[in-house]
Amino acid sequence: MVKIYSIMKGFLPFLFMLCCTQKIYAHEGHDHWTYAPVCIKKSTFVHLQSVLKAYEEVYHLLASKESDGIEASAKKIMEAAQEGIQTERKGDGCYMMEHVFLGARELQRAETIQDAREAFASITSELMPFFISWPNQLKLNAVKLYRCKDDGYSWLQPEDSVLVCPYTSDELTSCKHIEEVKPNHK
Description:
By secondary structure, the protein is mainly α. The chain has six helices and three strands; from the N terminus they run ααααααβββ. The chain has helices at 2-20, 42-63, 70-88, 91-109, 113-133, 136-140, and strands spanning 143-148, 154-158, 178-180. A hairpin with a 5-residue loop joins β1 (143-148) and β2 (154-158). α2 packs antiparallel against α5 (113-133) and α3 packs antiparallel against α4 (91-109). It is globular and about 70 Å long.
């Protein structure tokens, strides 16, 4: 009995360490807690830029509380993401492009401006790890990453644009607590 107790006493901390200290990933290849680097091929970069161009169109439409044109911009995002998927084929870049495509499909199907905002948020959440991984890409693509402290949503916005939260639902109100997300790498 004492021998079993001694073995269990040494085994339980080992079991706890083994089970409870491992990182748990949301899906293979991505660590949403620490933003493991998301890498894409150089050939995929051109498709990412096309995604960003159409993403900016959607941003401007949502920021101005308009929905006309969102469906066409969503289609552009889908087409660019599909090209990225064909170029990437596997890995983090492929995963990112697949989920950008899915978000764009939801954006295209959005029936209300709120549905469009939710789809836009999902696209942003898929693009964020790339820009967190490679902060120089923010500057290279002339965009900044912002987050609304009130609702927790993030978005990419052209550097030269007036700061406007695309998630604000009422024209009379605007986000009061917006912060620029500045990736910090060691």
